[in-house]
């Protein structure tokens, strides 16, 4: 058992060093048509949602700062119009890193806590901060669509929003949904395991059956993949909850691991061991 822990931590350290040295020059931005005038861009970091049309461009999230020029080039390929709005689904750097670049021409819109958490120091005019903030929800009427932005309670962080392109029938879930992989839950950033699961359940009730769903991470999805994600959350959190109630330690929980059927959900960012740590910490707090 000792050995497998050792291998586990070596792998974690390796994954961390790979992330630290991420070479953005090798990243290519891939565009996928989602529905009607909506596209999804994948590069490195969170998936980007794009609305293109007669009024120009709106994007949801903007990945890492070093990718801004490549993202800009990919947007130009989709539509020659101006970038008018950037919506941030939450504050994490793999979703807001391009803000400083794109904020020069576009208005950045996000939940109040995104601005709060991104703001460092006393300067009010820091580049890349959302300039339009909201507490509960707002709509952007753009490209003949109503784009609804809905803040949800503490889940992935305390700054999460879900975005619904109502006319195109597309939902961008932000990091409230990792398709086919264990999610990160940022407990230090106001996240909450039970709240995360609740947010997924509430969203599943509201999303139309035939909607296309852009996850924060992972491939373009539908309600089917979200139901699988929900089943994984309920089952794996249930296992850890029971183990905590039985007085088991984190080390014991990790040694027991998860049923084989969840093996494929382990990803470099959040492997099984890291996921168990998040569940253990998140479910231990009263
Ligand atoms: Zn995130």
Gist of the model:
The protein has helices at 2-20, 68-78, 93-96, 99-102, 112-118, 193-206, 223-245, 250-256, 272-284, and strands spanning 30-35, 38-42, 48-53, 56-60, 83-87, 107-111, 132-134, 137-142, 145-151, 161-165, 170-172, 212-214. With 286 residues, it is an alpha/beta fold.
Explain how this protein is built:
This protein is of the alpha/beta class and 286 residues long. It has a single domain, classed as Metallo-beta-lactamase, Chain A (4-Layer Sandwich), CATH 3.60.15.10. The chain is 36% helix and 21% strand. Strands 1-2-3-4-5-6-7 form a 7-stranded mixed beta sheet. Strands 8-9-10-11-12 form a 5-stranded mixed beta sheet, with no helix packed on it. The longest helix has 23 residues, at 223-245. The two termini are 30 Å apart.
Task: Offer a few descriptive terms.
286 residues, alpha/beta, Metallo-beta-lactamase, Chain A, seven-stranded mixed sheet, 9 helices, 12 strands, globular
- Spans where pLDDT lies below 50 across 5 or more residues: 1-18
Q: Could you tell me the CATH topology label.
A: Metallo-beta-lactamase, Chain A
CATH architecture: 4-Layer Sandwich
Described by the principal axes of the CA atoms, the overall outline is globular
Radius of gyration: 19 Å
- Terminal CA distance: 30 Å
The kinds of small molecule bound in this structure are: zinc ion
Largest sheet: 7 strands, mixed
Give the overall average pLDDT. 93
- What is the H-and-E element order? HEEEEHEHHEHEEEEEHEHHH
Strand order of the largest sheet: 1-2-3-4-5-6-7
Residue fraction in strands:
15-25%
**Residues in helices, as a percent range:** 25-40%
The tally of domains stands at: 1
CATH superfamily: Ribonuclease Z/Hydroxyacylglutathione hydrolase-like
Q: Which secondary-structure class do the elements indicate?
A: alpha/beta
**Strand runs, count:** 12
Provide a count of the helices: 9
Q: What is the class in the CATH system?
A: Alpha Beta
